[in-house]
Each structure stands twice: as C-alpha cells, then as structure tokens.
Design goal:
- By secondary structure, this protein is an alpha/beta fold.
- It contains 11 helices and 12 strands.
- The chain folds into 2 domains: 2-159 and 196-219, 3-Layer(aba) Sandwich (Rossmann fold), CATH 3.40.50; 164-194 and 223-264 and 280-288, Alpha-Beta Complex (UDP-galactose 4-epimerase, domain 1).
- The strands form 3 sheets. The protein has a 7-stranded parallel beta sheet with strand order 3-2-1-4-5-6-10, sandwiched between helices. A 3-stranded mixed beta sheet has the order 7-9-11. A two-stranded parallel ribbon has the order 8-12.
Length: 293
C-alpha cells in the first residue's frame, strides 16, 4: 500500500513512517520545508512539498496514494484557532479527494474528557471550548463512512512521549517549570492524564489503516491516567525544583484544559486490533528521558 502521511517528520509521524515502511508499505510524506523533506527522505519515504493550506499538494498526495494518515497539527498554542482552521481545511480537502474511493483516511484526534471515570471509544468528544474544533473535524472524518471512505479516528492522549525529549503536553509542564523555577500543577493535582509511548501509537495507526472498518474510533492509550501532581513530582525531581500548586494561567490557554480530570481507556481498541502497548510509561520516560534544552 502507498500511504500519504501528513506530519511525516513530526514527533508522531517520525515513528509512524518507519512503522509503515517496516511492514512493507511505501510512504509519501508531506514536507513543508526542505529540512522536513530531507528528514522524510532519510527515513526511506518520498517527500511531497506542501503544507496544510496547499490544496494542490493535499489533493495530489491523497489521489496518488492508497490511503491517508493525517497527523499534522500546528504547535503554536498561542494561536490555537489558526491550527484548528488549518486542520479543518485539510480534512475538507481529503473528504473531497477521497469521496467514493473506498480508500482509508485515518486522522489523529484527542481522547475526550469525562471527569470522574475512564473515557471510552463510545464517548463523544466535546465540541465546545478551546479545542472543540478538533472534535468537529474528527466527526467530519467519521461521517465520511457514509460517502465511500474507510474513515477512522485514532484518539491520542495529551502526552505522546518517548525518552528522547518529546513528551506531548508534559513538555509544556517542563518548559513552564524551567521558566518559573517551580514544577507546577493545577488545583490539587489529582486530575488524571492518559498517555502513550509514540512507538505504541505508531503501531496502532498502522493497524487501523489496514484493518479498521469505516467509522472506527480507536484509543491509543497506554497509561489510563497519571495524576498531574505525579507528573509535576517527576519533573521537579529531574530538574531539582520545588513542586507546588500554580495558577491555571501559568499554562496559558491550556490551563483550563489541564485542570480537567481526563483519564481514558483503550480496552475496546486492544481487543479489536490485538494491540498491546509494550514500551515505557510516561512517568518512566520523564524519569529517564533527555529533557529538551
């Protein structure tokens, strides 16, 4: 299968691309810069220059491939709406390019927050709030099941991690700790975050691409829920900083998100795809990892 991957040189994509290649697939990776193109080529894939606002490159990649994995999402959390708008444009472009083709379209999204219990694959994503637009984009993808697309959404935890300096949302805690001189948590710190190692997530994206029926929701959850306090403790220990409660505003617009209890389960996904996470937990990677400079 030839697979078009957006975000192919990013934190998750750089794990998904080797996973696909090792399984015998060919990969066409969207590259928004020469550096990204070189990274994709070095991995053994074929780069396609363009970005999420380039309708021609998105359409070309989808039409030239047997399936699409859409991972790209902006990292500028000070302009979250622009990132969501770019994703909306990409999803709509893929919807038009793939309609009636029967090809798979697998899109990354986030696990829902259901305070007080584990969120499951059956739970809907909240469409309100600062990241509600991502939920609406995910639903657009799922609705393509009625339009001849083998669509699926892989919901990722807030922290997709590896002990190489990439920790997802936990990276924001690290940056804030270094800036403030204190490893902080919001409220009492007992709100829980799910997490997954990026190599485990990459394997699930491959499994969903090749075997998921139309309209599938999968949860790439390795750890069901580490408390924010436990993450702050691990970071504080590593950086030799005090650990204490801080105001949600310390983390900008994401402070409100961080304050929510949001554990998640992947029980159904594990059974459906025979998927078992085997790599280190987030707390293990925070304890052993190489924090970014």
């Amino acid at each position: 299968m030839r697979v078009f991957v957006t975000g192919a040189s990013g934190g998750i994509g750089s794990a998904v691309v080797p996973e696909l290649l090792a399984a015998g697939h060919r990969v066409l990776g969207l590259a928004r810069s020469e550096a990204s193109a070189q990274t994709i080529a070095t991995a053994g894939a074929t780069p396609l220059r363009g970005d999420l606002t380039d309708v021609d490159s998105l359409r070309e990649g989808a039409q030239q491939s047997d399936g699409v994995i859409h991972l790209a999402f902006g990292n500028d959390f000070t302009d979250l709406q622009r990132c969501i708008d770019e994703e909306t444009f990409a999803v709509q472009t893929f919807a038009e390019a793939l309609a009636g083709s029967g090809k798979p379209l697998v899109v990354a999204s986030g696990t829902p927050a259901v305070p007080g219990r584990l969120a499951t694959e059956e739970d809907p994503m909240g469409t309100e709030g600062p990241i509600g637009g991502r939920a609406r984009n995910a639903q657009t993808v799922l609705d393509l099941a009625d339009h001849g697309v083998r669509s699926a959404v892989v919901r990722l935890p807030r922290s997709v991690h590896a002990a190489d300096g990439r920790y997802g949302f936990a990276s924001i805690l690290i940056r804030a700790a270094r800036h403030a001189g204190v490893s902080g948590y919001v409220q009492d710190g007992q709100q829980r975050w799910p997490a997954v190692h990026r190599l485990d997530a990459a394997r699930l994206f491959r499994l969903v691409l090749t075997s998921a029926p139309p309209g599938t929701v999968a949860h790439a959850v390795g750890d069901e829920g580490d408390t924010m306090r436990s993450l702050a403790d691990a970071i504080g220990h590593r950086l030799h900083l005090p650990v204490r409660e801080v105001a949600p505003e310390t983390f900008g617009l994401l402070g409100a998100v961080f304050a929510v209890d949001q554990p998640a389960s992947s029980e159904r996904t594990r059974q459906q795809f025979d998927w078992l996470p085997t790599h280190p937990s987030l707390l293990e990677d925070l304890a052993a990892g190489l924090y970014p400079a």
